[in-house]
Design a protein that fits this description.
- With about 500 residues, the protein is α/β, with parallel strands linked by helices.
- The protein folds into two domains: about 270 residues, Aldehyde Dehydrogenase, Chain A, domain 1, CATH 3.40.605; about 200 residues, Aldehyde Dehydrogenase, Chain A, domain 2.
- It is built from 15 helices and 23 strands.
- The strands form seven sheets. It has a seven-stranded mixed beta sheet, with helices on both faces. Strands 7-6-5-8-9 form a five-stranded parallel beta sheet, with helices on both faces. A three-stranded antiparallel beta sheet has the order 3-4-23, with no helix packed on it.
- Strand 6, helix 8 and strand 7 form a beta-alpha-beta unit.
- Helix 4 packs antiparallel against helix 6, helix 5 packs antiparallel against helix 8 and helix 11 packs across helix 12.
- The chain is globular and about 85 Å long.
- The termini are far apart.
- Bound molecules: 2-aminohexanedioic acid (UN1).
- The site of 2-aminohexanedioic acid has 12 residues, from loops.
Length: about 500
């Protein structure tokens, strides 16, 4: 199949990309090359950082609501190109059509959220202990923000950061994953169009950086960037965090998850089944919020797990561009090999593995398609500690809820979690201080598919960062405490006396 019309619709024609050199853009659908993308050299990245720094000094003086107007126009343009962008996501990341559309919708949603926010970047007025004084807290633009994003959400995660950073008065630099450069190019072109069309937006406000690990490292080490927001593996985040901390920069980390759900005896099993399959097999298990571990109360194990096995065995796997496909390919051979290695480890540890094998949809031989794997166990094994970015679901029976909660918390990561239950005591226990230790805890809905209105992120090796809704905008701003004396006298705080005569 020739994908050039899809590329053209998204504004990234293969001819314009170049025939050799740089980064190879490929589709996981059948492994075909889509084009070659020029990478940015270290000196070129340095220039882009300088341009973003210069743009910041102008942008921070533009009123917040006007900054919001830029993001409003960008969101509108994204909406107009929704289907072409969604198809590009499908082409380059392998997401099924509906999830591609969902991801672009997430971009639109966060833009609209940011527009509203541009009129609400509020501070505080606090009571001063000194007569005739005003004590204030005010949020100021922070500086150029470096954004490093991952292949699995090649547009939305950048948009969470970019839209908020822009309304907060920051300039931005984006290094998309080397596995999805075309998604980066296509989406960034739309933002560039909007910037070019608006006099009040300084040129250089948003920079796209194409490159690999070195390019990310260059951003992380650069003292001109007060904030680095990085999404990806825990190994990547550990390096970025240390480099950024060494220069007293801030990092906002969105790293690995190893998400679990607990199914109690009171659960609605039909609802649970749908939620579990979407969370564990959806996106071919390649979301940081994907469900990886399932703890099922022993009384309902024999009802739920055979149904899961049946659905897993019949789930439609194939071309993600076809409307009836529910599972597309893994991103590449490396992802497939990691999945197989994890399954070997599980079998060696005594687990019963259902599925997990490679499948070959017609005419798509170059793609890595797999049947999702269900791994049945009696107790946790070592391989469950790691986040394998593939559709593997470890399933274990449990007796008591406190044991299930302890088991779900007994991993190094802490992103998302869920309980399926119709018993208030169980759900409230799960949501209590003694319950889930994750950044996200859901009741009767799966671990993935969070809305943008809440803060997104997790604890422990997930990195502690929070992005998107709630008060996450504060990460993109500098907090300033201001004391104003309008009294004519000079009383000192804490009643200190200092009379110089
Ligand atoms: C990710 O996988 O990096 O909650 C982000 C979700 C999506 C975002 C996932 N809204 O699954």
């Amino acid at each position: 199949m020739n994908y050039s019309s899809l590329l053209a619709a998204a504004g990234v024609e293969a001819q314009a990309l170049g025939a050799s050199g740089g980064l190879l853009a490929a589709t996981p659908i059948n492994g075909a090359t889509l084009g070659h993308v020029q990478t940015d050299s270290a000196p070129r990245i340095e220039e882009k950082i300088a341009a973003a720094s210069a743009a910041f000094t102008a942008w921070r003086g533009v009123p917040g609501p006007q900054r919001g107007e830029l993001v409003r126009q960008f969101g509108t343009l994204v909406r107009a190109h929704k289907s072409a962008l969604a198809q590009l996501i499908t082409l380059e990341a392998g997401k099924i059509a509906s999830e591609g559309l969902g991801e672009v919708q997430e971009v639109i949603d966060i833009c609209e959220y940011a527009v509203g926010l541009s009129r609400q970047l509020h501070g505080l007025t606090l009571p001063s202990e000194r007569a005739g004084h005003h004590l204030l807290e005010r949020w100021q633009p922070l500086g150029p923000v470096g954004i490093i994003s991952a292949f699995n959400f090649p547009m939305a995660v950048w948009a969470w950061n970019a839209s908020l950073a822009l309304v907060c008065g920051d300039s931005i630099l984006w290094k998309p994953s080397e596995k999805t450069p075309l998604c980066g190019i296509a989406l960034h072109r739309l933002l560039e169009q909007v910037i070019a069309a608006n006099e009040f937006a300084p040129r250089g406000l948003s920079q796209l950086i194409i490159g690999g690990r070195d390019a990310g490292a260059q951003l992380a080490a650069h003292s001109a960037l007060p904030l680095i927001s990085a999404t990806g593996s825990t190994a990547m985040g550990r390096t970025v965090a240390q480099v950024v901390a060494a220069r007293f920069g801030r990092s906002l980390l969105e790293l690995g998850g190893n998400n679990a759900a607990v199914v109690t005896a009171s659960a609605d099993l039909a609802l649970t089944l749908r939620a579990v399959v979407f969370a564990a097999a959806g996106t071919s298990g390649q979301r940081c919020t994907s469900l990886r571990r399932l703890f099922v109360q022993r009384a309902v194990y024999a009802q739920l797990v055979p149904q899961l096995r049946r659905v897993y065995a019949t789930l439609s796997i194939g071309d993600p561009l076809s409307a009836d496909t529910l599972m597309g390919p893994l991103i590449d051979a490396e992802a497939f090999n990691r999945m197989q290695a994890a399954l070997v480890q599980a079998r060696t540890a005594g687990a019963t593995v259902h599925g997990g094998e490679r499948v070959f949809p017609t005419d798509l031989d170059g793609g890595y398609y797999v049947r999702p794997a269900l791994v049945e166990l009696q107790s946790p094994i070592e391989v469950m500690q790691q986040e394998t970015f593939a559709p593997i679901l470890y399933v274990l029976p449990y007796e008591r809820l406190d044991q299930a909660i302890a088991a779900q918390n007994a991993v190094r990561q802490g992103l998302s979690s869920a309980i399926f239950s119709n018993d208030l005591r169980e759900t409230e226990t799960f949501l209590s201080a003694a319950g889930s230790d994750c950044g996200i805890a859901n009741v009767n809905c799966g671990t993935s598919g969070a809305e943008i209105g809440g803060a997104f992120g997790g604890e422990k090796e997930t990195g502690g960062g929070r992005e998107a809704g709630s008060d996450c905008w504060k990460a993109y701003m500098r907090r300033q405490t201001q004391s104003v004396n309008y009294s004519g006298a000079l009383p000192l705080a804490q009643g200190v006396r200092f009379d110089i005569g």
